[in-house]
Amino acid sequence: MMKNQFEMSDFIAGFWRLASWHYSPQQRLSLIEHYLDLGVTTMDHADIYGQLQCEILFGEALSIKPSLRTKIQLISKCGIKPTFESAPERYVNHYDTSEQHIFTSVDNSLTRLGTDHLDLLLIHRPDPLMNADEVALTFKKLQQSGKVLHFGVSNFSTGQFELLQSRLTPMNIQLITNQVEISPYNMTSLHDGTLEQCQQHRISPMAWSCLSGGEIFTSQSAQAIRLRTVLNHIANNHCVKDISPIVYAWINALPSQPKPIIGSGNVQRIKNAISSKSISLDKQEWFSIWEASTGHSVP
């Protein structure tokens, strides 16, 4: 087993909605500093977020105080080509994991973020046309150039992960994460082998959409109503006013040690998420949430 030299913070700051917050450069810088003050040092981006604007906005903020770069681990993702207005040649959303596109995407992300390297690069979505040999060689070239230090994937199945890792192992490169959806509302990754694979490789998955885009709070589906009832009951037992820390505590309890992505620009919501570190759910509480999600008891 190759040793993973990359350490992520327990929680990760997600900036996919940064453009929609309409913050000034100084407000963006203050948000970054709030995250750092709370121990969140890993920052997650993707080339396409905000129609290519989110990395630019983050880079502008970081340029005000460049010394913060040494305190931050920057993550970006590539491989998706949406039909943006700024790319009129694209007439269908598609994936591209070719060497040329990965190189171009990395160079663009470095320019937008105002940095000379990414700490971690992820393939954003599994590409049915992905040539694993080509991607592995591209990763090696990026590592040798110093532009990217570590590599991972996002939303990959266990088979897709193993395919790419099989080509990287001879190059002494280990995929160090799989960024996947994890929440009580969507437990697919708990039952399809993804989290077991992370344990097997001793890597921590990154968890996106932990609060299901707010569905846990607002949806009127039977599943969401069951979850809110149980989450509120457990929150009361732990003297917690908000159910979101209970959701994060449920994710934190997973033995694969997921790193939840907090996609918020609201400091109080960020603090609520991080407060889950002090909440320990017992097994019956944890499985009560599982049961509320599935609508049935364990077999």
Outline of this structure?
The protein is 43% helix and 14% strand. It is an alpha/beta fold. Strand 2, helix 3 and strand 3 (73-78) form a beta-alpha-beta unit.
What does this structure look like?
The protein has 299 residues and is of the alpha/beta class. The chain has a domain of 170 residues: NADP-dependent oxidoreductase domain (TIM Barrel), CATH 3.20.20.100. The protein contains 13 helices and 10 strands. The strands form 2 sheets. An 8-stranded parallel β-barrel has the order 1-2-3-6-7-8-9-10, surrounded by 4 helices. Strands 4-5 form a two-stranded antiparallel sheet. α3 packs parallel to α4 and α10 packs antiparallel against α13. The longest helix is centred in the C-terminal third of the chain and has 16 residues. The model has no long low-confidence stretch (mean pLDDT 96).
Key phrases:
299 residues, alpha/beta, TIM Barrel, eight-stranded parallel β-barrel, two-stranded antiparallel ribbon, 13 helices, 43% helix, globular
SSE order and pairing:
Blueprint: E1 12-14, H1 18-21, H2 25-37, E2 42-44, H3 54-64, E3 73-78, E4 80-81, E5 94-95, H4 99-113, E6 118-123, H5 132-145, E7 148-154, H6 158-168, E8 175-181, H7 188-191, H8 194-201, E9 206-208, H9 215-218, H10 222-237, H11 244-252, E10 259-262, H12 267-274, H13 283-294
Parallel strand pairs: 1-2, 1-10, 2-3, 3-6, 6-7, 7-8, 8-9, 9-10
Antiparallel strand pairs: 4-5
Helix pairs in contact: 2-3, 3-4, 5-6, 10-13
